[in-house]
Design brief:
- The structure is a single chain.
- The protein has one helix at 2-19; strands at residues 23-24, 36-41, 49-50, 52-53, 57-58, 66-71, 77-80, 97-101, 107-112, 118-129, 136-142, 148-149, 157-159, 166-172, 186-192, 202-214, 222-225, 232-233, 244-246, 251-255, 262-264, 271-273, 279-290, 293-304, 309-314, 326-328, 331-332, 340-345, 351-355, 370-375, 381-386, 392-403, 411-417, 423-424, 432-433, 442-447, 461-467, 477-489.
- The chain has 490 residues and is mainly β.
- Strands 1, 2, 3, 5, 7, 8, 10, 14 and 16 form a 9-stranded mixed beta sheet that branches.
- The chain is elongated, with a radius of gyration of 37 Å.
- It starts with a helix and ends with a strand.
């Protein structure tokens, strides 16, 4: 009889000694001793409602490891205290944990766990539920980021203990090859049981770890490369350059320094930024390093100006004789919209061709031939230049101009429209010009490159009207030739 009492006391001691720290370990598995901690959430820094929780530690900062609670309904994630001691890493102590609140039957806890550069993956976490929380957790995974499966998974369902008693769940993906070296690996936890649809209660998680074996445990990185465009454009943000490399990299470096405005992230190897100065073609050596060696690649980087395209061009050399009502561009890059010049308004003024001596601003090897003139009276008319910029930006207009004699209008006024109706001068550096007398021509430049509304605009129009006492006369005219619109392609 004494032996029976002693045995009962011993068993009771074991049970209570295992639960005094509020945790019972379960379904624990052996982990390869060469494994490293890839991602770790201890949740000690969180407080309040959470939409997404990033790891407290990660070896893949570019990979976007996170935990979220997706689906419909009023359920949400927030912090709870105190957390659990199970599965703590790095001599840490229990602090906060993460809880998924009911109703949980319409939501899933999604753990995004990229494994790039690692294999033989083991995921572990401490978990429990409140008395009214969902009784059952169901586990599945995806290797493409979309379609979930349980194939080969050692544990697909778990009945939670009741807080404050926590359990350790171990999900063994070491035999599932598709999980290795996979940037799209995710785990989904769904919740079932009669309590899951309730309006109170929750499931609790703490100390989530993802461990795996580096693919190149004792080897230097190799096959470092970047896909680099032939050149960059000054003051234009570049598309981030991401490295391609085999093996583990602890740090990246570059020599010489990248062009002004560009930088190399020493952890991820990403080259990003906006070049702020011109730079000739220069070779840059990028080095990827770990404790066992390095891998290098050479990039040739040029920073230049954006290529200018001749968007619209009038050389007028093929103008018909007689009065003209509309003059279409001699060349244009926009086939769906017609670029043209008209002379609108009232009175007897009209436009026609004349023999031009202007060679200023000619394009494509053209020679002087004909030009376009706007006859007085010009004070009641406007030159309307329809110049759609669809697909282009940083627009600059140029043209050669003069007046016929002292009887030609002595003032040209410039404005523009973004809607094809209302004309303004906002942001335009040159709004008026006094033309010389033919054969002395000048080039007028109207720079719209800082006017954002002029970019990619099918309704863009430039207007020229005339002033001075001469504009009311019945003789004389203003003349233009070699009209160009140049721009950068968007």
């Amino acid at each position: 009889m004494k032996k029976t009492i002693s045995l009962f006391a011993f068993l009771s001691f074991l049970v209570f000694s295992c639960t005094t720290d509020r945790e019972i370990k379960s379904n624990s598995i052996a982990i390869d001793p060469t494994s490293v901690l890839i991602h770790y959430w201890n949740f000690n820094a969180i407080a309040g409602t959470q939409a997404q929780v990033n790891p407290d530690l990660t070896l893949i900062p570019l990979g976007g490891a996170s935990i979220s609670y997706s689906g419909s309904g009023a359920g949400y994630m927030d912090a709870f205290t105190p957390g659990y001691d199970i599965n703590l890493q790095n001599t840490e102590v229990a602090g906060s944990g993460l809880r998924a609140r009911n109703p949980s039957d319409t939501k899933n806890l999604i753990m995004s766990l990229p494994t790039t550069g690692f294999k033989t993956i083991i995921v572990q976490f401490a978990t429990a539920a409140t008395s009214s929380g969902a009784q059952t957790q169901n586990y599945s995974y995806t290797i493409d980021g979309t379609n979930y499966s349980t194939d080969g998974l050692n544990t697909t369902t778990f009945n939670t203990t009741i807080d404050p008693i926590a359990s350790l769940v171990s999900l063994d993906f070491s035999s599932i090859i598709g999980v290795d070296n996979n940037p799209n690996f995710k785990i989904k936890i769904s919740f079932t049981g009669s309590n899951a649809s309730g309006t109170t209660g929750n499931n609790r998680f703490d100390n989530v770890t993802v461990k795996g074996i580096p693919l190149s445990l004792t080897a230097p990185p190799n096959n470092l490369s970047y896909n680099v465009p032939p050149s960059f454009t000054i003051n234009t943000p570049i598309i981030d350059l991401n490295p391609s490399v085999s093996g583990n990299v602890t740090t990246y470096s570059v020599s010489p320094s990248l062009p002004a405005g560009l930088s190399l992230n020493p952890t991820t190897g990403i080259i990003s930024g906006t070049p702020t100065a011109l730079s000739p073609a220069t070779n840059y050596t990028i080095t990827a390093s770990n404790n066992y060696g390095t891998s290098t690649t050479t990039l040739s980087i040029t920073v230049g100006t954006a290529p200018l395209y001749l968007l619209h061009y009038w050389n007028f050399n093929n103008l018909a004789t007689g009065t003209l009502t509309i003059v279409n561009a001699d060349s244009t890059l926009i086939t769906t919209n017609t670029a043209n010049i008209t002379y609108t308004g009232t009175g007897t003024g009209y436009m026609d061709q004349y023999t031009s001596t202007a060679t200023l601003n000619t394009q494509n090897g053209d020679v002087s031939g004909l030009g376009l003139r706007f006859r007085n009276p010009s004070d009641t008319r406007n030159v309307i230049i329809t110049a759609p910029t669809t697909g282009y930006k940083n627009v600059v207009m140029k043209f050669a101009t003069a007046r016929s004699s002292v009887s030609g209008a002595s003032i040209q006024n410039y404005s523009y429209s973004l809607d094809g109706v209302n004309f303004i001068t906002t942001g335009l550096a040159t709004t008026t010009f006094n033309p010389n007398i033919d054969p002395t021509y000048d080039v007028v430049t109207l720079d719209f490159s800082s006017i954002i509304g002029a970019n990619n605009n099918p309704n863009f129009v430039v207007k020229i009207n005339f002033g001075g006492t001469e504009a009311t006369g019945i003789s004389g005219n203003n003349r233009i030739d070699n009209v160009t619109f140049q721009a950068n392609h968007i």
